Structure formats: C-alpha cells, structure tokens
Amino acid sequence: MNCHQVGNKATREILPGILRESDSHFDAWDQRVQMGPMGAGMNGMYRRLGPQREMFADWTDRIASGEAPTQIPPRPTGIERNIVVTLWDWGTETDGRTDSTPSDVRDATVNANGLIYGVVQPSDILRFWIRLSIGRRTSRFHRTPTHSV
Fold first, then answer.
1. How far apart are CA 15 and CA 78, in angstroms?
2. Per the confidence metrics, is the pTM higher than 0.70?
C-alpha cells in the first residue's frame, strides 16, 4: 500500500505461514499489512479503510474458490494506443528495494529527455541513465558515501 506497486506478487498473495496462523482471510490481511520495514505505516493506511477492509478478504476468498473474470478487458482505443511501455530489472541479484524516477514528482514537465535516477535500498548506490535506450538498456552507478557498516 505504500512500499509495493499495487498488483505485484507481494500485494496479490499472502504467505502460507500467515494463512495457517489466521482464522480468516480478513485476519490474514490484517497480519500481512503489518509486515516489513513499512508495516506500521502500511497498517495505519489499511486500518483507515475501516469496513472496506472486508473487500480484501472477499476478493481473496473468491480467488481461492477459483473465481476469475468473466470478460476480457477491452483493448485500448484512440489516444490510449499511443503509449509504449518497456520495463526491465535494472537492479542486481543482491539489491534490495529499488525505486526510480525520471522527473520531479511535484512538476512532471521538468527533465524531458534527462537522466533517470534510481536508488537501491539498503545499499549506498545511486544508479542513473544518461539516456534511456531500449536497445542498449545501459546504466551506470555512483556509490554515495554513507555511515553504514
């Protein structure tokens, strides 16, 4: 809810150990959102949903029972077809959480064709691209001095 992209594996699934120790999917979701370094903040956001938290349990129950969407989502039409998104993992096998941004979140019009910055947690690496090249997919990194051991 605040440290994972919604829809990825971590937000779609509850670990089997949590499910075994829970009386219901509702209880399992309450436990799931308390996990990890951002657990306290994520739990606070989740609890503010109040009674709407039941939808997470209902959704989990329905999927566990084999429910799937009955309709195929419509293909994009018009201007929605004018975007191409290319993704790749820019971290390494030893990196923890990573985030990147191509612009200032307060003003997305700045930095056109500029560097894309990425940070790696919990290391001291700042990774950046001079130019995003779909064909080459290149990057370089700068190790930032920290007080970590």
1. 40
2. no
